Structure formats: C-alpha cells, structure tokens
TrEMBL record:
Database matches in Pfam families: His_Phos_1
SMART domains from the UniProt entry: PGAM (SM00855)
Domain of life: Bacteria
Gene3D superfamilies listed in its UniProt record: Phosphoglycerate mutase-like
Species this chain originates from: Jatrophihabitans cynanchi
Name under which the protein is recorded: Histidine phosphatase family protein
InterPro entries reported in the protein's UniProt record: His_Pase_superF_clade-1, His_PPase_superfam, PGM_Phosphatase
Length: 213
C-alpha cells in the first residue's frame, strides 16, 4: 500500500519592511498569499485528502484554511512543521540584502554547512520527515486511499526533500524548487519514500512583493 503526503508551502506574506520574520508572530498572508492559498486548495481538493495538519505559524494556518473549508476538515497542528529557527530573525535582511553589512552578525557565518546562523539542517530534516510520517499514519487510519496535507515553510520542505533524495543538505538557496503555495508530494510505501512529485498551483498568478520565507 502506498500513501501520498503533500507538503504545501504557505502563500506570500505581507512584509513591506522586508524583515526576516522566521518564527516571529504577526506575519500574515498578503492579498496575493490568500489568492495563492485558494488556488492550492483547489488543486489539492481534487485529491482524496482526508487529513490536514499545519505548522503553528499564522501564515501556514491561513494557507491551510481554504482547503479545510473545501473538504470539511479540521486543521491539526504539528510543531515539527514550523519554520527553521534562525538567529537573524527580526533583522531587515530578507532576500539576502544586508546580510554581510553588519559586523555584529559575522559570528553567525562561521559555518554555512551546518548552518551556524540557525537550526541545523539535519535537525530540520529529521523533524519534518517525522511529521510527514505521522501524517501518513493518520491518513492510513482514515482509509486505504486517503492522503494528507502538511502545511509548512520553504526551508523545512526543501531540506526534507533533499534528505529523502539522499542529497547533501547544504545548498544554494537561490536554486530551491519550492515556490510560494507549491506542493511537494511524497509517496510512502511502508516507511520508505518511493516517489516525489512537485506542482505549482499558483504559478499563473503575478509575482508579489512579500519576502515569502
């Protein structure tokens, strides 16, 4: 038996100050982000989704809401799907601008492979894949064909995929394949991930101006 788990990245965030918001509260979806979430919900509502779980952060919960309404599901919360911890959160460095202009931040750049500025990549991979497997178990309890959706954030989804594909976790952020409101789907056979698919339901919408982390 195989079960598919969809990792849904949240939509664009309203962030005119270009703050690296990380896990900070108060960062909600922009109007574009809401539209992106609705298109993702339309895409996923065509699947036999029986279980929906989200990161606790507001932008993820908002992204989950249209799908919950479309399918009549409640939104469970799993802390393991949360954004990566980052020592730079709250700084106006979103998008990479300003990262190397403040000498007070230099201490965080000593080891980019770990990375030294935040939660270790290996730790992120472990917790997100554990959350995906827990969602897989929940879907299987619902029925043989049931699928699940986990709403999370770009870096956690990318790192989980890289671990599942056996690739090194350190990478170039500019080459991440995980756009806003995108869907990265893991197909499980037992405890093993045997297939990974990717879709961008909101690709037809115009680009916005949020940081989108």
């Amino acid at each position: 038996m195989t079960t598919t788990i969809h990792l849904l990245r949240h939509g664009e965030v309203f962030n005119p100050g270009r703050v690296l918001y990380g896990r900070l509260p108060g960062f909600a979806l922009s109007d574009l982000g809401i539209a992106q979430a609705k298109l993702a919900a339309e895409y996923l509502a065509r699947r036999p989704v029986g279980y929906l779980v989200s990161s606790p952060l507001e932008r993820a919960q908002q992204t989950a809401q249209p799908l919950a309404e479309a399918l009549g599901l409640t939104i469970d919360t799993d802390e393991r799907l949360i954004e990566a911890d980052n020592h730079l959160q709250g700084k106006q460095v979103a998008g990479g601008k300003g990262l190397f202009r403040d000498p007070a931040l230099f201490k965080y750049y000593r080891n980019p492979f770990t990375p030294s500025w935040g939660e270790p990549y290996a730790q992120i991979a472990t917790r997100v894949l554990a959350a995906a497997r827990a969602a897989c178990d929940a879907a299987q309890r619902i029925g043989q064909d049931a699928e699940a959706v986990c709403v999370s954030h770009q870096l956690p989804i990318v790192i989980a995929r890289r671990r599942a594909e056996g690739r090194r976790l350190f990478h170039d952020p500019r080459r991440r394949r995980c756009s806003l409101a995108s869907v990265t789907s893991f197909t499980f056979a037992g405890d093993a991930i045997v297939r990974i698919d990717y879709a961008e339901p909101a690709a037809t919408l115009p680009p916005g101006h949020g940081a989108g982390a």
